[in-house]
From TrEMBL:
Record InterPro entries: HAMP_dom, HATPase_C_sf, HATPase_dom, His_kinase_dom, HisK_dim/P_dom, HisK_dim/P_sf, Sig_transdc_His_kin-like_C, TCS_sensor_his_kinase
EC number(s) reported in the record: 2.7.13.3
Full protein name: histidine kinase
Predominant place of localization: membrane
Pfam families: HAMP (PF00672), HATPase_c (PF02518), HisKA (PF00512)
Cellular localization per UniProt: Cell membrane
Organism: Streptosporangium subroseum
Required cofactor names: a divalent metal cation
TM region(s), chain numbering: 162-180
Gene3D superfamilies per the UniProt record, alphabetical: 1.10.287.130, 6.10.340.10, Histidine kinase-like ATPase, C-terminal domain
Reactions that this protein is recorded to catalyse: ATP + protein L-histidine = ADP + protein N-phospho-L-histidine
Gene Ontology cellular-component annotations: plasma membrane
Sections of the chain in a coiled coil: none
Length: 470
């Protein structure tokens, strides 16, 4: 039940303090008033003390219940002889007779004879202020006045205070809530801005940070928070801009470098091909060397092409917008895969209707080819590879490549779509894999507004691509 917001806590604290103050004031004023009134009763008692009680001493003259003439209503008189109450009377409109219980008699008998006022509680009467003096014939005479009036006055004061304090608490609660809300409004603005920043994708690319928090008086705490927050936003903005610029430079460099490498590579390949076609009179060793140069330069060309493609995808170059028949593309690519991996079993699962979409035909083709070549290259012979196209919902197309090979190693799965990630580095390099294939697949798919996922365990590996279709 503890309040959570700062606002609620401040208001609660304010109200608790106010309540404490009210209680203190209430207690102090009623105590003071009671004291004052009781003092007045005591004064009255000491002026009249003994008069009514003394009349009780003279049974013959005034009767057993004393002389009530000139006494105010409620005046109590008691005569105590040897610790026993002999006469007790109270001034009332009709009779002054008073029947005291044994307890009351004991209470009265215990009143010290010091000429000072004492408050007693009698069951026959209400609260009384009594004063005891020594009588003429060795007895004790107690005179008393009712405290009824004093109590009533104190109660009225307390009631009035409760009403006033309640109104005060309600008014303070409302005014305090409004006031605290106003004071904390700028803090809420800071929170709202921070909230907006926290939802921004800061991981990469150019980020537009939200507006700064409006300036407040920097002498206030809220103003200081706002200013610090603005400075932090400034720093973050600057570093993001720096990072973006450096990313941009890296991309340009990668694109330029791979582009520049293509021409000399093409020349090397052309010359090697020429030399291999017409080797002339050279030894077997040279022939072998030429073969190796040919194979490795082809691999390098592919690598350079992949790098260039990735650099272009990174740079967000606009894609071609072709009408692509996904079904047709999958049939062709599977046909090619059958030729290049004849030891695998290739199965096709296609919908009745052709699935078409708008996209970059060459790049989408590369997606299919990369997935199929992985299913061919990273699984043993006799593996069954199923290539399926489905329409999982309106304007959606799903391409899935499933194989029952050994699967992707567990520790590789998380970063499989990163660049240059491949299972067995040494072996893959020899077999030609560079680890760029899936990175390209992912980049092409996301540049088409699609998503990709993968699931792999021994005997069941599936790469699924979800693309928007028409
Ligand atoms: N169907 C699959 N079965 C088992 N492992 C796979 C499969 N597909 C991919 N892998 C693993 O994922 C790694 C990364 O694949 P990726 O296509 O990115 O690179 P690559 O095939 O090694 O090289 P590249 O495609 O650039 O020639 C592969 O090296 C392989 O270890
Ligand atoms: Mg591959």
């Amino acid at each position: 039940m503890r309040p959570h917001t700062l606002r609620a806590r401040l208001v609660t604290g304010l109200l608790i303090l106010l309540a404490l103050a009210c209680v203190t004031i209430g207690v102090a004023t009623s105590l003071a008033l009671e004291r004052f009134m009781v003092d007045r009763v005591d004064q009255q008692l000491s002026m009249t003390v003994g008069r009514f009680a003394a009349s009780l001493e003279h049974n013959l003259e005034y009767g057993e219940y004393g002389d009530s003439r000139g006494q105010s209503l409620g005046t109590l008189g008691v005569r105590i002889m040897n610790g026993q109450v002999t006469n007790a009377a109270v001034v009332a409109p009709n009779s002054t007779r008073l029947n005291l219980s044994a307890d009351d008699a004991a209470v009265l008998a215990a009143v010290p004879m010091d000429g000072r006022g004492h408050t007693v509680e009698l069951s026959a009467l209400d609260d009384y202020r009594v004063m005891a003096i020594k009588g003429a014939d060795g007895d004790v005479l107690i005179n008393g006045l009712p405290l009824e009036g004093v109590n009533a006055l104190v109660h009225r004061l307390q009631f009035a205070e409760i009403v006033v304090f309640a109104i005060l608490m309600i008014a303070t609660g409302i005014a305090g809530t409004i006031w605290i809300r106003l004071s904390l409004r700028s803090l809420e603005r800071v929170a709202a801005t921070a909230q907006r920043v926290s939802t921004l994708p800061l991981a990469s690319g150019e980020v537009a940070l939200p507006d700064r928090v409006p300036d407040e008086d920097p002498r206030t705490e809220v103003g200081q928070v706002g200013a610090a927050f603005n400075r932090m936003l400034g720093h973050v903005g600057e570093s993001l801009a720096l990072r973006h610029a450096s990313e941009q430079r890296m991309r340009t460099f990668a694109a330029d470098a791979s582009h520049e490498l293509r021409t000399p590579l093409a020349t090397v390949r052309a010359h090697v091909e020429l030399a291999r076609r017409d080797p002339g009179d050279v030894s077997e060793g040279v022939r072998h060397a030429l073969k190796r140069i040919d194979a490795e330069s082809s691999r390098m060309s592919k690598l350079v092409d992949d790098l260039l493609l990735l650099a272009r995808l990174d740079a967000g170059r606009p894609l071609a917008r072709d009408q692509v028949d996904l079904t047709r593309m999958v049939i062709d690519a599977t046909g090619d895969a059958r030729v290049s991996a004849p030891d695998h079993h290739w199965r096709l699962e296609l919908p009745e209707e052709p699935v078409t979409m708008i996209g970059d035909a060459d790049r989408l083709h590369q997606v299919v080819v990369n997935l199929l070549s992985n299913a061919g290259a990273h699984t043993p012979p006799d593996t069954t590879v199923t290539v399926s196209v489905r329409v999982p919902g309106p304007r959606k197309a799903e391409l899935a490549v499933t194989d029952d090979g050994p699967g992707v190693p567990e520790k590789l799965q998380k970063e499989l779509f990163e660049r240059f990630v491949r299972a067995d580095k040494a072996r893959s390099r020899a077999s030609g894999g560079s680890g760029l294939g899936l990175a390209i697949v992912k980049a092409v798919v996301s540049s088409h507004g699609g998503t990709m996922d993968m699931e792999s365990r021994p005997g069941h590996t599936v790469f699924r691509v979800l693309l928007p279709s028409i």
